[in-house]
Specification:
heterodimer; B: mainly beta; globular
């Protein structure tokens, strides 16, 4: 079974802090994705990556950056957390041209 | 541009009744279509996918969906609802060209005893 793990299930940070969300997949997938999920808005794509050291902006990249130094790991970085970044963050991975597999999510609260 | 519309942000059905969750898509080319389910405090799990083979697709937990090109629809059904089906359901579309998936806003399914 594909396994996608995220470093934390729940996280509380203060405004202005730098926040790292880590995602690891164990199936050698090329593609990895970061989404945020908010009530009534569904899933919105923040960033994605097709290969190591490659990254592409999604629909809402402002205030976020990413890093993919190894194929299995894709990190989402909030350079200076703000209260409007309080959300559920979901990581996913996929083989080329295939369905995405999701991690359990990280519920981030910024106070 | 591709998009997905799910009709009804909340749907309630009685236990044992038919489940019907509606999804319409727009796409300029034949799409890949997916239904995902999200249980409380969990990530999304693939229920089923359509990839241009059979138009009636069977998924896990007794769910199925039918691709209707003329109606640009991909509705999800289950003949008899169970309490464990209470969750949020997402319809999604992909053009395969860039492996991105566009998700609908989700439908929360409530099962009444």
């Amino acid at each position: 079974d594909v396994k996608v793990t995220q470093s934390s299930r729940y996280l509380v940070k203060r405004t202005g802090e730098k926040v790292f969300l880590e995602c690891v997949q164990d199936m050698d997938h090329e593609n990895m994705f970061w989404y945020r999920q908010d009530p009534g808005l569904g899933l919105r794509l923040i960033y994605f990556s097709y290969d190591v050291k490659m990254k592409e902006k999604g629909d809402i990249p402002e205030g976020y950056s990413v890093s993919r130094e190894k194929k299995e790991r894709f990190s989402l970085i909030l350079e200076s957390a703000s209260t409007n970044q309080t959300s559920m963050y979901l990581c996913a991975s996929s083989l080329q041209s295939s369905e995405q597999y999701f991690g359990p999510g990280t519920r981030l609260t910024v106070t | 541009a591709q998009s997905v519309t799910q009709l009804g942000s909340h749907v309630s059905v009685s236990e044992g009744a038919l489940v019907l969750l509606r999804c319409n898509y727009s796409s300029s080319v034949p799409p890949y279509l997916f239904w995902y389910v999200q249980y409380p405090n969990q990530g999304l799990q693939l229920l089923l996918k359509y990839t241009s083979a059979a138009t009636l697709v069977k998924g896990i937990n007794g769910f199925e969906a039918e691709f209707k090109k003329s109606e640009t629809s991909f509705h999800l059904t289950k003949p008899s609802a169970h309490m464990s089906d209470a969750a949020e359901y997402f319809c999604a579309v992909s053009l395969n060209r860039d492996d991105k998936i566009i998700f609908g806003k989700g439908t929360r399914l409530h099962i009444l005893p």
